[in-house]
Amino acid sequence: MKKEDVTGLIVYLLIVGIALVFCFTVLREHSTYSGLDFFPYWLYIVGAVLSGVLFNGILYEVAHILGAKAGRYEIISVCILGLLFYKNAEGKTKVKFSGFDGLTGETKILPKENVKKEPNPRPYLLFGTLFYAVEIIAFVTIFTLFRSNSETAISNIAYFVLTMGVVGGVILLYNILPLKLDSVTDGYRLTMISNSKNKEAFNELLKVEYAISQGQTDVEIKTFDTITNFTADLNLNKVYVLLDQEKFEEAEKIIDIILTGEGEVSQKVYLRARAQKIYIELMTKDAEQAKEYYLKNIQLSEARELSRDISMPSIRTYILISGLMDKSHSETILCLNNVYRAYKGTSKTRRNTEIKLFNLALKKVMDENPKWTDIGDYFLEEEGKKETPKKEVEEKENNEEKTEN
User: Fold this and answer.
1) Which domain holds residue 258?
2) pTM of the full predicted structure?
3) 390 lies in a domain?
4) 65-110 tens-digit pLDDT
5) 211 plus 129 within the same structural domain
6) Domain co-membership, 37 together with 122
7) Residues 52-58: contacts with CB within 8 Å, 24+ apart?
8) Is residue 396 part of a domain?
C-alpha cells in the first residue's frame, strides 16, 4: 500500500471516528428526550445527514464559483453530487449526470484571456473553506440558542441543524487537509501553488486540459524543468501528444525530466512516469537490447509495484515485462484482468491515446507468444469508433464479388 493510500485510509477512519463519537454522545443523549421512537428518530437523523450533504455540496460549489470569478476565471461547468451544469456550443445551459473529482462535486474553470493581471487561483481554492467556516459558526450559534427550548419541536430543529453542521465540518476537514487523497483537495492545491512555478503550471494545465477535452489535437503545451506534481502532470500532457504520434524519443526526453523530480512528486506520479519510460524502452528496442535493458534497469520490487498499480501506463508496461521478458502467461492474464478498471479511471482526454498504446503493447506480446490466443480478447476499442464485425465484412465482400460477376 502506497503512502497516498495509507494517508487516505487514515483520513477516512478519522471521519468515521468523528461521526461515531457524535452519534454515541450528542445524538444518543438527544434521542432520550426528542419525543421520537427508535425508527422515526433514525429517519430524522438520516434526513439531517442527507440534508447536510446536499446543503454543503451546493454551498461548496457556490463558494468555488464566487472564488473563481474573484480570481479572474471563466466557469466551464459545475457538478454537484453528480448533477452537471454546463454550456453547449450554442451557449445554452444544459444539465446531465456525470462523475466528478471531489467529495461532493467539482467546478471546472478556465483562466480568462486578455486580463491585466494573471488569474489567481487562491480565491477559488480558499472560498470553500471560508464559506464552511461561516456556516459552522452560524449553525453552532443556532444550536446553542435553541437546543434547550421547552418546545420539543424547536429543540429537534436545533439538533437537525447541528447534524447538518457536523456534515459540513467533516467535508471541511477533508478539503482543508494539505494532503493528496483519492481526489485532489483544495488544501493540497493551496500548498502547491505557494510555489510560483506551480501557480503558472496550474493555469497552464487548466488551458491544456480544456483544449484537449474540446478535441483540439494541435495544442501548444508548455513544459517545465522544475518538477512538482503540477508541472509533472502538465509535462505528461505533452508526453501523451508525442506518444500518440509515436514520437517515442522526444517523449522520453520529457519523461526523463519528470524522473529528476523523485522526492518532489508523489509515489504514484513517479511510478507511472517510470512505467512510461520502461514502456518506450521495451517497445522500441529489439529483443536482445530490451532484455539487456530489463536486466540492468528494472528491479524485481519495481516490477511488482507496476503489477499492483491499477493504471493504464503500468498495465501496458507490465504486460511487456511479463509477456516479453518473463514469458509468464498467468502473470499477463492477471494484469490484463485489471485493464477495464484502469481504463475507466483514466482521464477522458487521454483514453484514446492509452487505448492505442495498450493495443500496440498487447499486439507485440501476442506476436512474441502466438499460442497465447486468449489474450486477444483484451484488445480495446477507441471511443466513438465501432469496428465492423467480421461476419459483416465477409458478407460485404461476397456481395461485391456477385456484383462483379
Assistant:
1) 193-378
2) 0.71
3) no
4) 999 999 999 999 999 999 999 988 787 889 999 888 888 999 999 9
5) no
6) yes
7) 52/163, 52/164, 52/165, 52/166, 52/167, 52/168, 53/81, 53/104, 53/167, 54/81, 55/164, 55/168, 56/104, 56/132, 56/135, 56/164, 56/167, 56/168, 56/171, 57/81, 57/104, 57/105
8) no
